[in-house]
Amino acid sequence: MRIQIRRIRIIALIAVVAVVILVISGTGIGNQLAAALMVPLRPVAGWLTGGTMAAETAIQGGTSEQSERIRELEASLASLQTEIVRLREIEQDYYRLSDLLDYATGHDDQELVTADVIARDTSGYLRWLIINQGARAGIQVGDPVISASGLVGRVEDVAASAAWVRLVNDQSSAINGWLQEARAEGTVVGQLWGGLRMEYIPQDAQVETGDLVLTSGLGGNFPANILIGQVTSVRQQEAELFQQAEVRPVVDFDHLDLVSVIISFQPVDISIFNERLEEPEPEGP
Amino acid sequence: MSLQLGAPLLILAALVQATVLPHLRIAGGQPDIVIIITMAWALLDNGVEAAIWALVGGVMLDLFSGAPMGFSVLLMLPGVLIIGLTETQVHQTNPLLALALAGIAVVLYHGLHIIGLYLLMGRPIVLMPTLYYITMPSVVFDVVLTLPVFWLLRPLYARLHPGGVKLQR
Known about the structure:
The complex is a heterodimer. By secondary structure, chain A is an alpha+beta fold. Chain A has 3 domains: 1-106; 112-168 and 254-266, Rod shape-determining protein MreC, domain 1 (Thrombin, subunit H); 173-250, Rod shape-determining protein MreC, domain 2 (Thrombin, subunit H, Beta Barrel). Chain A contains 4 helices and 12 strands; from the N terminus they run αααββββββββββββα. Chain A has helices at residues 2-25, 28-61, 64-95, 271-278; strands at residues 111-120, 128-131, 144-146, 151-158, 163-167, 174-179, 184-190, 196-202, 212-215, 227-235, 242-249, 258-264. A 6-stranded antiparallel beta barrel of chain A has the order 1-2-5-4-3-12. A 6-stranded antiparallel β-barrel of chain A has the order 6-7-8-11-10-9. In chain A, β7 (184-190) and β8 (196-202) form a beta hairpin. By secondary structure, chain B is mainly α. Chain B has one domain (2-159). Chain B has helices at residues 2-19, 33-44, 48-63, 71-85, 88-93, 95-121, 127-160. In chain B, α2 (33-44) packs antiparallel against α3 (48-63), α2 packs across α6 (95-121) and α3 packs antiparallel against α4. Chain B is globular, with a radius of gyration of 15 Å. The interface between A and B is large, with 52 and 57 residues.
């Protein structure tokens, strides 16, 4: 009995230590601890991820020549998809006689940092990535992360030489998006099984399968018009205020090895709303 | 002595869990090898050393996760405690009991994980899909692999604790 009490005491002591670590984890000390632990582990993690990706590619893709060719074609496809998005935008703008948006020079305001994916979340419940660039490269919490195909996620935590990225398909991710053809806005939320769903789409929007989903830029957290995914099905019920659409992400999150972090961009100007709020109320007659 | 060997093993296990195992997911689940090793050691040990292993392994797991540091340690400790409260010799001679204890510990870990993510990170609980897509496959992996790991760690435990409990064949 005495031995068991001793065991319970030791386990309780470790629980107290864990609670202390938990409490300091969100503070500067916790971040420094994580950064210090990450220094020796980062190269090993990068090496293991690189090796695993290479082995996976070799197993799935046959010879290295074939895999190289597949990579080239995938890069080319991603580039063409981006081009299609851009051209469709120009077309839509043309038809609407809109000269407000100029996509040809639309990305000059963005500054990118390229990083390797070195690890993935150890918990099956979270969809996060760890990349090998951090504060030293200018990355900050909240920075958007993209790949050649489209939106990957958002930086949630930063150490000196590593950053933790929440993927767009994480269950707690919610991003303002819009449908390119339907010209309707909504919120793109991550699903437990790794997919995406667009919610709060107005009932009057004509959403079709195949419609592309892009970031709207509202809220200022993401640049506008980054490709997120493609609508695969639509759920519309008259009794509900909004419709929903299942969205297939354009990014293959399981095979990401290289990403870019947008460390500087010009957010959508929402200052007009502040101005309206600050406007004095008109005086009565 | 146990920690000198356990710490590198757990660090390596966490690294493998963050880099290699996400590519080997089957039916949405993947083995949680840090938990498997910790629970297997708890079955061998009386729970005290396993609790220290849980501390090291848990911190390493959280380093490669979006969850706050210390979170996984707290999730593993109830399982370690339950195993530690039983008599060591019983589950060393009875594989079924060892399997049952590992099962309880792993289910506790995953159950607390879902609740903890809700409480600490405000993550919504979507119970049935979570159980179906993530928890069930992971629990099966963890429980099934705990016994082989337990058998693999037995000689090591015997070597580290020569005056300890005599292992039965």
